Amino acid sequence: MAIFKRELSGPSFRAFLALFLQVISYASLLSCEKIEMGMLLSSRAMSLERHSEDYCAMYDICGERSDGKVLNCPYGSPSVKPDELLSAKIQSLCPTINGNVCCTETQFETLRAQVQQAIPLLVGCPACLRNFLNLFCELSCSPNQSLFINVTSVTEIDGNVAVDAIHFFVTDTFGERLYDSCKDVKFGTMNTRAIDFIGAGAKSYREWFSFIGQKADLGFPGSPYTISFKSNVPELSGMELMNVSSYSCGDTSLGCSCGDCPAAPFCSDAEPPPPHQMDSCSITIGSLEVTCVELSLGILYVVLISAFFGWSSCYRRRERRGPAPIKKPLLDSINHGEITSILQEDKERPVKMQEMVPAESNMVQFSSVQGCISSFYRSYGLWIARNPTLVLCSSLAIVLLLCLGLLHFEVETLPEKLWVGPGGKAAEEKQFFDSHLAPFYRIEQLILATEPDAEGGQQPSIVTDRNIQLLFELQQKVDEIRVNFSGTMVSLADICLKPLGNDCATQSILQYYKMDLDNYNMYGGVTHAEYCFQHYTSADTCLSAFKAPLDPSTALGGFSGKNYSEASAFVVTYPVNNAMDDSTNENRMALAWEKAFIQLAKEELLPSAQSNNLTLSFSSESSIEEELKRESTADVLTIVVSYLVMFAYISFTLGDPPSLSTFYISSKVLLGLAGVLIVVLSVLGSVGFFSAIGIKSTLIIMEVIPFLVLAVGVDNMCILVHAVKRQPSDMSLEERISSALVEVGPSITLASLSEVLAFAVGAFIPMPACRVFSMFAALAILLDFLLQVTAFVALIVFDFTRAENNRVDCLPCIKKNSSRASDEVSHQRNPGLLVRYMKFLYHVQDIHTRILEHWAVKIFIVAVFVAFSLASMALCTRIEAGLEQQIVLPQDSYLQGYFNNVSEYLRVGPPLYFVVKDYNYSSESSHTDKLCSISHCDANSLLNEISRASLTPESSYIAKPAASWLDDFLVWLSPEAFGCCRKFINGTYCPPDDQPPCCSPDEGPCGLGGVCRDCTTCFLQSDLKNGRPSTEQFRDKLPWFLKALPSADCAKGGHGAYTSSVDLNGYKSGVIQASEFRTFHTPLNKQGDYVNSMRAAREFSARVSSSLKMEIFPYSVFYIFFEQYLDIWRVALINIAIALGAIFVVFLVVTSSLWSSIILLIVLAMIVVDLMGVMAVLNIQLNAVSVVNLVMSIGIAVEFCVHIIQAFLICPGDRSQRMQGALITMGASVFSGITLTKLCGVLVLYFSRSEIFVVYYFQMYLALVLIGFLHGLVLLPVLLSLFGPPPRYVADEKQEENTPPSSQQS
């Protein structure tokens, strides 16, 4: 989330903005009274005024303000020659000052004590530091001070006259050089620039000087008197501009790193890499701009249609010139009137090719595999019809045995285990980061926002007195949460993240009041918050309760730029300690508190916010997991209703026309119920099997697979029952069962096997939820198919036997009067209701087939479907990768509003860590210079590259330079930062002078004496080689640095900021196994932003790793969830290709028809492409869920095609006649048993409370059913009539001799 993982902390950050202003503060604690300059014109002070060389404008200290800031004496006097010791001290800090000086030893010690606060911020760039010191050295000690300083106002303090205002004359050249050398210097600990601390973010040297010269009010940081910087001296004044030597940050002798000085000559060649851009080739045709892909597909369409039109014209001319076929076509054997008569008479045989042409039925020739399957089903049908009880009991026993695995049933709800594949790169990196550094903290968050205006729709500012006080009330309720955990009452203070001390690192605007309501009015109410928005880095009253600056961008939302006062939302974030093992007491305590926090937010905080016309959204670390658990029971009613609908539909479909006198005999309610139970058992058997082998179930499995299997299973049930009913009535029941299985068994087997293979392909998808779903679904469909051809066929035998024995449906023990038994049996053999319906619609079907026979219609249909497929290809490029978080949650979840508000209000992106493995810090290694970004570091070092990448955030998604523990450590070690790394005489660590034991807050202001008076810097400059520590020095002082508290005297202390940034395990060997450098991503609002930011970070790391020959990887908390989208297109295409290939091979092996297999492959591919086009139109994203759906759609689409192709293969006649016969034979089954059943199963999903089911199952499956129906009953017949394979048909010898070749090839 958008807060610091490790905040910079310290007991005091006062003087960060004005630390260099205090170098001129020389006064006592006595109150002062200003006396205007005009009242002192006759005083001795003014009589001594003089502007010449070796003359001072101010000398010595004449008093202090009441807030402790010192004031200089305004008396002009000649410069003074210091003693040898003082001269050496001044030379060490101010090398430009030689000889006489204008400061006493006390003044110099005060100057030295104050500038040491700035040195740690600037020492990484020597040129900036030298220019900065020169400015204040000249101001305080220059022997020619009177030439460029003029006292313009004085004040009286306890009888003494002290300086109240001065003019400081400085050249523009020096001011520009000073600013240019410092403007880009980083303060890594806070991921910002040092100028933000010491110059209030000045944009020019004039702004910086203006800020420096402001006179501070009592108790506030800043200058004790007014300094007016002037670039022009008065005429005849004898004064001149101060123009001491200044240095460019690119100066070779005092050069800065590229990170601190991007404009340096040696950095100019290392420009940021060009932004990563996707191919955006486009062509403008007039006023129309089209992409190259669209133009290419358009050209391809014209070529294909032109070629098809040319081929069809040639074929038609050849067909007209050829002799008429001698072989009697299928539909010539029975005229149209006869067919109509057959379809209209109930007691005649139903429409069936073998029955319509009995003389030719024995001429059908199957492939060897298909023949074997048919032979198997013929024998198997006879056997099962004779032994239904054995088959039913044994098949059910096997499935019930599998169901015993449900005793080990578990549901996986952890998001990272649902959506993240094991062994992935992101998972390994997360494991490395958590184990070597520290797990990312838990996030609890509140977002309090204003409502838009009714008129303009604009949201008013939330920074008002009433809203801040309301936030205090909400915070008090959060602080009062107490949860009983194992007999211990747990509060937020017990689990929160505490960088230093005992205060939580809560990110809230209330930190500007130290989280204390009593300070609200004391500090000035809302005005103080607005003041802190601009001075949060330095003002003591603006520092947080945990002693660190609070960036307002982390606590406010809905503002533009840095207009924090216009913010429309408060963002309150509670970082909570996290542990790698979820079973630890630490995490269990946090989990218990989080539940109470969410309950409080729902019951008290939300109503309180709404009563004040505000909105409140909230979340905890465990919220998603808890909402997923709730989702498991959210759609129970939907499941029950869907099964009732499907049960009613099955009973309606399988039964005969309703009649009051025969309904209880001819109905199929019991058979329909048994069919539903078979589906339930197949699902339970699949879940039981995988539960037994230790694979957890998911919510998708619980809710979607039953619908899916039911929709798929009903198809085969309808086809089986209708096939039995179509058999001649003079056959015995055993023969009818056998013939029905021979008729539809091969196509059912082929379709089911294709579906199982298509679902099984999903097992290769890395996302666990979808992989497990595919595995469960494949086994469930396989079990459903096996139960259909065993248990359900046995049930059909029982049901038909029941009807023939005149027994009542649902109550088979009751037998009807035998006098009407023959009528009931006759009625039982009548076609089912759907078959009668299709007979009634025969004329419509006849019109449909006759329309499809016209060449113009065929060309039009092919042109339209090809156009739709090519248009879908063009639309596919618009499909975005990702899965919106709101989609996977219930529609009524409180997280829906939270995720919307996160995208709308947050202005800081997630933390980004660049993790370095095996950093060799020994002096013999070059790793240090390859990583750091201070002086003498490589121009292409990691931190310099990060800094450059942050200059192009729109492509790199890196918002700021990185916080570098290594830079800060090297600065902290430097003798120039003399207030940081220090040691006592005995060699132990000595803290800065403003920290205990050197200084105790209870003992008043800190001085330079006491127990730390003899402390010295850890090293002399001569102890370091090129400013770098030796291996032993590095090893010994690194623990000191990580334990050092940051403070005003040394802001570079590493404790708090870098406590977890370095893995010290085994570091004494000279190699640090893991360390991290922290920065931030830019605000990420869309799924595409998350994916692109991760891709950009990995590309950046790969490039830098290759350049530096070091192992570096990026890590952010969201990477583990988004890694799958980096190559989701590749995964999708591979899985779709495997599924299509598997079905093609299966169909080819079973039918031995290469041409029909190719046609099937083309139609299935078009269905998938068209479905992806619909995804683009409906803005459905590409993710593992949609990839599984696309793969499954191939298996489901097979049913729309395979039965038509199978019927086409066995029908006699030419292609058009066989196409018509195939539609007549299987059209009813495809429409009623496949299309309508799937529509019933899919339409129920519309009422689901889970958005993921509505989008990814209702919308996609509905589109699949409609697209599959159109392709199966419109496009496929046309393609078969044009390019279909020869019939599986063996003519007698006489006919064969008289049949012309053209007819055989037709």
Automatic annotation (TrEMBL):
Coiled coil: none
Bilayer-crossing regions: 295-315, 636-654, 669-692, 704-724, 744-765, 772-798, 855-876, 1128-1151, 1158-1178, 1190-1211, 1223-1248, 1260-1284
Predominant subcellular localization, coarse grouping: membrane
InterPro entries xrefs: HMGCR/SNAP/NPC1-like_SSD, NPC1-like, NPC1_MLD, NPC1_N, SSD
Domain SSD: from-to ranges: 635-798
Record key words, sorted: Cholesterol metabolism, Disulfide bond, Glycoprotein, Lipid metabolism, Membrane, Signal, Steroid metabolism, Sterol metabolism, Transmembrane, Transmembrane helix, Transport
Localisation: Endomembrane system
Gene3D superfamilies: Multidrug efflux transporter AcrB transmembrane domain
Membrane topology: Multi-pass membrane protein
Family: Belongs to the patched family.
NCBIfam families: 2A060601
Protein name as catalogued: NPC intracellular cholesterol transporter 1 isoform X1
Source organism per UniProt: Rhodamnia argentea
